[in-house]
Amino acid sequence: MEKKGLLIVVSGPSGAGKGTVLAHTASKYPNLKYSVSVTTRAPRDKEVDGVNYFFKTEEEFQAMKKDGEFLECKSVYGKSYGTPRFYVEKQLGEGYDVVLEIDTEGALEVKNVYPDCVMVFISPAKRSTIEERLRNRSTESEEQIKLRTQSALKELKQAVFYDYIVVNEDAQQGADDIISIIQAEKCKVKNNKKFIDDLILGGK
Ligand code: 5GP
Known about the structure:
Strand content: 15-25%
Strand order of the largest sheet: 2-7-1-8-9
Oligomer: single chain
Number of strands: 9
Distance between the termini: 10 Å
Order of helices and strands: EHEEEHEEHEHEHHEHH
Bound molecules: guanosine-5'-monophosphate
Mean pLDDT: 94
Helix content: 40-55%
Radius of gyration: 18 Å
Number of helices: 8
């Protein structure tokens, strides 16, 4: 089989449980590399610089943007977020599968640059779960909870532009679903053209 990394773009409303599902996915599927984004929002308790995000000032962020360091960048919930281009290109080139956890606008932009990327939307089973989860995790101010629950409907409407939807009722099951998606994508004929050519030409 070809050693070509797959780019997986994951989005979903705040409180959908994307982080938990992806943490389970990474622990079950070691070939997956998580792209650490750059943000100007403040770190939450237990978040580590360089692990959850690269935390930057707005000036630093704008300088990176000017230097073309982002594959895409967007303002989300009033703060700046961007995907570092270098890391993504390097890991894909080395044959790793790379996951981006980004908002729906950024995701559609990535799809333009990488039309072969796989777009996965993580959704809660019920809309009311969004606010419940945001309140239970106690990481957001009241103002942020309002902003994020209000934005949820707009984000849910974007799900139709994605290739797959994973309903997060159980994070382990959600991770298994994402791994199944990756495996199915890897078996697609369009992702194995070189392998087939080599078989036909007797190169293998
Ligand atoms: P949070 O502040 O909860 O970590 O993330 C807020 C939103 O920003 C989430 O929807 C998350 O997917 C999105 N996000 C995180 N990193 C990036 C990025 O690099 N680019 C874009 N466009 N969105 C991002």
